[in-house]
Write a structure and sequence with these properties.
The structure holds two protein chains of two kinds. By secondary structure, chain A is α+β, with helices and mostly antiparallel strands. Chain A folds into two domains: 7-66, Arc Repressor Mutant, subunit A (Orthogonal Bundle), CATH 1.10.10; 78-156, Glutaredoxin (3-Layer(aba) Sandwich), CATH 3.40.30. Chain A contains seven helices and four strands, in the order ααααβααβββα. Chain A has a four-stranded mixed beta sheet with strand order 2-1-3-4, covered by helices on one side. In chain A, α1 packs antiparallel against α2 (27-38) and α3 packs across α4 (57-66). Chain B has three domains: 18-229, Rossmann fold (3-Layer(aba) Sandwich); 241-321, Roll (Ubiquitin-like (UB roll)), CATH 3.10.20.600; 326-410, NADH-ubiquinone oxidoreductase 51kDa subunit, iron-sulphur binding domain (de novo design (two linked rop proteins), Up-down Bundle). Chain B is built from 17 helices and ten strands. The longest helix of chain B is centred in the C-terminal third of the chain and has 18 residues, at 346-363. Classes of the chains: A alpha+beta, B alpha/beta.
């Protein structure tokens, strides 16, 4: 195993594996922990996780590429994910996404040059009563308009 | 409102903490079930209560439990479906955030009734904060003897763990959820065998939605007859409707099953926002075929909506106004299913991608004369031809939009 991963991560892996009757079942939770520590699941992380769980690296790659939340490349410090599904679109998610692109000077899927912000769209985030909404990392922000977006970004800067 | 069952204590501050929950009468249903009832008596009460699944399919919960064989020498599992991905749906997030112990109580009683000693709560990956809240509730329940070994000194053991998904709508489908819990891609399994006999780790498994399980403590406490009176004879209890879109007061509304759609939109959700006019409603999450403005006098229950060619699904009501173009609605639907098709079955993988491509072409003003017919043909070729219900979930709303709003869509064809 690569020495770069923290000992707390290794302890966490053992703890999570113990919850399941089969080791491989711990794959998703462990990928979440590794991504949190490293920032993404690149080839090296795939190998590390495969080894920890006794899986072939290809099994890990299959899973990483299937689920949208696993990132194969690092994103900015703040990952802004704007819901582009129906309830949010009805209430103006489209124009707000344009506003964010213009304000940050990046397109969808891009990261600002200073590495602070990555902008993405997401399918329904399960917060339709707060439409239009977005996630900043794992924090939800709803009932968005331009002023609210300005305030959110100011607080992050 | 004394109609409320599931949400009645939502206003109580700190309800998510076990001390506060106990102060509101929490965990008394667990005491009653484990100390005064046999597992068979609990199962019987839930069957009589006509509790139908709140995830979308509406299958009677008690009947589902009854399918689990008790004579197989394998462990049995409970999976709580908290994947909540159906667009328009957000009720389970409220239930877990406000009242995580209610879900745990339902989980404990269900496990007792079916002879289960390990349960997993599969929470969609985006709900990280919900997962953390559930994990602290679980820790409290272990500490106070409601989980773990020898619960309340009755000899019953149960372990519960949270398992987070990672962004895949398909994992709300029960067999895809099992695959995902086993650490694989969420590819649905062929049924039969059904999860009740061969489920998680090839063992008998019950899979129930968060709202379904949150009803169980009330059935145990108040009885099946009381529960049926809260809803309809074949459809017991209340339902949490999630209303979103162009209404004044979007949010969750707990109401008796059979409440009219018009009442939900115009009385509870405050009517249309900014004086806009109603055009259409999606009554049960995005997979539910669309209803036009003159179809909203329907009672919101499984059978009435099925009779109208739609479905109650997850009871997520999305309200669409006349200024919104139906093509924009179709665009959102087509994009969603093409993104979320798991790729396993060809008709769904290719069909949803083609439909999305054609709809995008229409939106660019570059449509071709037979595009609407092509969409209908493609959707019809998905319907009924896939392993799991995602195929139908994509095809049916698309077909309903093309049929009910054909004239408006034709207006987007060049030279029309």
């Amino acid at each position: 195993m690569s020495p770069e991963y923290s000992s707390s991560l290794r302890r966490k892996i053992d703890e999570v594996v113990a919850r399941y009757p089969k080791k491989g079942a711990a794959l998703l939770p462990i990928l979440h922990f590794v991504q949190r520590e490293v920032g993404c699941i690149a080839v090296e992380e795939e190998r590390f996780v495969a080894q920890a769980l006794g899986l072939r690296p290809m099994k890990v790659r299959e899973v990483v590429t299937f689920y949208t939340m696993f990132l194969r490349r690092p994103v900015g410090k703040y990952h802004l994910q704007v819901c582009s599904n129906l309830s949010c679109s009805l209430l103006g998610a489209g124009p707000l996404l344009d506003y964010l692109q213009q304000k940050l000077g990046i397109g969808i899927g891009e990261t600002t040059a200073d590495g602070r912000f990555t902008l993405s769209t997401a399918e329904c985030l399960g917060a339709c009563e707060q439409a239009p909404c977005l996630m900043v990392n794992f924090d939800y922000h709803g009932q968005l308009d331009r002023e609210k977006i300005d305030q959110i970004l100011e607080r992050l800067e | 409102m004394d109609e409320n069952v599931l949400t009645q204590h939502f206003g109580v501050e700190g309800l998510f903490r076990i001390e506060v929950y106990l102060g509101q009468g929490g965990y008394r249903a667990v005491e009653k079930a484990l100390k005064q009832m046999t597992p068979a008596a609990v199962l019987d009460e839930v069957k009589r209560a006509s509790l139908r699944g709140r995830g979308g399919a509406g299958f009677p919960a008690g009947v589902k439990w009854g399918f689990v064989p008790q004579d197989v020498p394998k462990p049995r599992y409970l999976c709580v479906n908290a994947d909540e991905g159906e667009p328009g749906t957000f009720k389970d997030r409220y239930l877990m955030n406000h009242n995580p112990h209610l879900l745990l109580e339902g989980t404990i009683i269900t496990s007792y009734a079916v002879g289960i000693h390990a349960a997993f709560i599969y929470v969609r990956g985006e709900y990280e904060n919900v997962a953390l809240r559930l994990e602290s509730a679980i820790a409290e329940a272990y500490r106070d003897g409601y989980l773990g070994k020898n619960i309340l000194r009755t000899g019953f053991d149960l372990d519960v763990a949270v398992h987070r998904g990672a962004g895949a709508y398909i994992c709300g489908e029960e067999t895809a959820l099992l695959e995902s819990l086993e650490g694989k891609r969420g590819h649905p399994r062929l049924k039969p065998p059904f999860p009740a006999s061969i489920g998680l780790f090839q063992c008998p498994t019950v899979i129930n939605n968060v709202e379904t399980l949150s009803n169980i403590p009330f059935i145990v406490q108040n009885g099946a007859d009381w529960f049926i009176k809260k809803g309809l004879p074949k459809d017991g209890g209340t339902r949490i409707f999630g209303v979103s879109g162009m209404v004044k007061k979007p949010g969750i509304y707990e109401l008796p099953l059979g409440t009219k759609l018009r009442t939900i939109i115009f009385d509870h959700a405050g009517g249309m926002k900014d004086g806009k006019q109603l055009k259409a409603v999606i009554p049960g999450g995005m997979s539910a075929p669309i209803l036009t403005a003159d179809e909203i006098d329907l009672p919101m229950d499984f059978d009435s909506l099925a009779g109208a060619g739609s479905m109650l699904g997850s009871a997520a009501v999305i309200v669409i106004d006349r200024e919104t173009s139906i093509l924009d609605v179709l665009k959102a639907v087509a994009k969603f299913y093409s993104h979320e098709s798991c790729g396993q079955c060809t008709p769904c993988r290719i069909g949803t991608a083609w439909i999305n491509k054609i709809v995008k072409r229409l939106a660019r003003g570059a449509g071709e004369q037979d595009d609407i017919d092509s969409i209908i043909r493609l959707a019809s070729n998905i319907k009924g031809k896939t392993l799991c219900p995602l195929g139908d979930a994509a095809a049916l709303p698309i077909l309903s939009i093309c049929q009910k709003f054909r004239r408006e869509l034709e207006g987007y064809l060049p030279h029309a």
